Design the sequence.
């Protein structure tokens, strides 16, 4: 697709703010930190067709940190999977857009996630299935750094390498924060690159995971490893709440926070560079 990824990131960020601002509360920090990787995947790299959301052999994105649902929904709406007006129904009765990703409710969502650790295992299973089917798909998945404390992540990591799942590209949203505070203080996951390498994965470390050009390069680099016998982990050093200063400044307080529609409007002006 020929598109301006920086503008798309702004559009996605603004729609996240509109959506969560309308509801009044949500996982703002962890939604804003993954915008660049979602933009690169959905607007540049993935073999998908919004008009055929169940297309056989399509690439998959499994957002294992399922609380970033609103970021994925904003991306899907911008990509044309459904009408943007639906975003305003987030987490309300009868919605197709629950706070966490649900494959049975939302067009374009390929796996139900939210119980940390499980989505990653599902991604590994889907990658294995895709290999057995030889359908040519690439499976992408995003995990959180706090999520990486789950034992299930490392069991699945070991299995993916043992089975040579070289159609699997994972991302760690290394924003250094989780619900209770800094990851380094709660239960440090560092050194992440060394851990994934020791588990038999290719590792790519991106210094700034909110620089869309660096993320784009990293995904292209990761794709060179497809078919090479190993899964790949791309570590994205990101900022939780990226794009809106007061939200960034809340630190771990931005994990699931309140926001008024006025605050959301001001945030949108800031993202657009109009503040
Ligand atoms: C198994 C499980 N335990 C606890 C939770 C509640 N929970 C939701 S998000 C979160 C913090 C996750 O931190 P991180 O992975 O760093 O996410 P991010 O910083 O990207 O928002 C927790 C504890 C959950 N969803 N699943
Ligand atoms: Mg985190």
Sequence:
């Amino acid at each position: 697709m020929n598109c301006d990824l920086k503008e798309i990131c702004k559009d996605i960020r603004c729609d996240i703010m509109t959506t969560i601002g309308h509801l009044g509360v949500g996982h703002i920090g962890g939604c804003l930190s993954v915008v660049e990787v979602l933009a690169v995947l959905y607007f540049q790299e993935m073999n998908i067709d919004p008009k055929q959301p169940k297309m056989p052999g399509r690439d998959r994105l499994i957002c294992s940190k399922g609380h970033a649902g609103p970021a994925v929904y904003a991306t899907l709406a911008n990509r044309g999977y459904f009408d943007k007006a639906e975003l305003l129904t987030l987490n309300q009765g009868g919605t197709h857009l629950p706070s966490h990703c649900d494959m049975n409710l939302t067009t374009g969502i390929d796996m139900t996630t939210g119980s940390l650790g499980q989505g990653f295992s599902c991604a590994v299973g889907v990658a294995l299935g895709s290999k057995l089917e030889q359908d040519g798909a690439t499976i992408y998945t995003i995990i959180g750094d706090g999520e990486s404390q789950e034992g299930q992540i490392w069991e699945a990591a070991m299995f993916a390498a043992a089975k040579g799942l070289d159609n699997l590209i994972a991302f760690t949203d290394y924003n250094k924060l989780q619900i209770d505070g800094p990851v380094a203080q709660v239960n440090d996951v560092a050194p992440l690159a060394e851990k994934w390498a020791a588990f038999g994965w290719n590792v790519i470390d991106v210094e700034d995971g909110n620089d869309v050009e660096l993320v784009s390069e990293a995904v292209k680099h990761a794709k060179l490893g497809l078919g090479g016998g190993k899964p790949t982990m791309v570590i994205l050093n990101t900022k939780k709440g990226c794009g809106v200063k007061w939200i960034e400044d809340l630190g771990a307080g931005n994990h699931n926070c309140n926001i008024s529609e006025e605050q959301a409007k001001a945030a949108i002006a800031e993202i657009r560079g109009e503040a």
Notes: The chain has one domain: 5-271. Residues 5-23 form the longest helix (19 residues). The chain has a mean pLDDT of 97. The first strand starts at residue 25 and ends at 26.
